Amino acid sequence: MNLIYLDTSALVKLYVWEPGTEDVQQLVRNSTSIATSIISKAEAAAAFSKAVRKGYITYAEAQTAWETLLNAWPFLVRLTINETIVSQAGSLAFTYGLRGYDAVHLAAALNWQDMLDIPILFATFDRKLWEKAKHMLTVWPESHF
Questions:
Q1: d(CA 105, CA 91)
Q2: What is each CA distance from 87 to 55, 93, 106, 144, in whole angstroms?
Q3: How far is CA 105 from CA 22, 61, 99, 102, 121, in A?
Q4: Does the domain at residues 3-140 carry the CATH identifier 3.40.50.1010?
Q5: Domain layout of the chain by residue ranges
Q6: Of the four listed, 20, 42, 44, 127, which is most buried by Cβ atoms within 10 Å?
Q7: Is the overall model pTM greater than 0.85, yes or no?
Q8: What distance in Å separates the CA atoms of residue 46 and residue 40, rounded to the nearest whole number?
Q9: How far apart are CA 111 and CA 105, in angstroms?
């Protein structure tokens, strides 16, 4: 069983062409279940908007990416955030110096793995999050990017 948690940095690569897109597409094709936190929807929208502001993509490309994500959203395992996950995220953020939503992603993935009682693969392209998560989960990409 190939269970994958995509943080927003990995999820966005499915909808906007950038370095790592083909790798994430291959990873997803070979998975049996793909999960992300519900916060990824808001983070992805912000990422698409930022890409337009920075001139990386056009507004039309961002609109297409957003609509494609919205169509795919029901097919993802969408992990909800509760007090337990927020508390764990707070501890992770404080202990490891993670940004708030990065800590929420890590806490959500850890909680999902604990619930399933089987290993999951944590996909992120955030260097600091990858460095911290590799001590708690199996991370992807396998080597530092």
A1: 13
A2: 37, 10, 12, 28
A3: 22, 26, 10, 5, 13
A4: yes
A5: 3-140
A6: 44
A7: yes
A8: 10
A9: 10
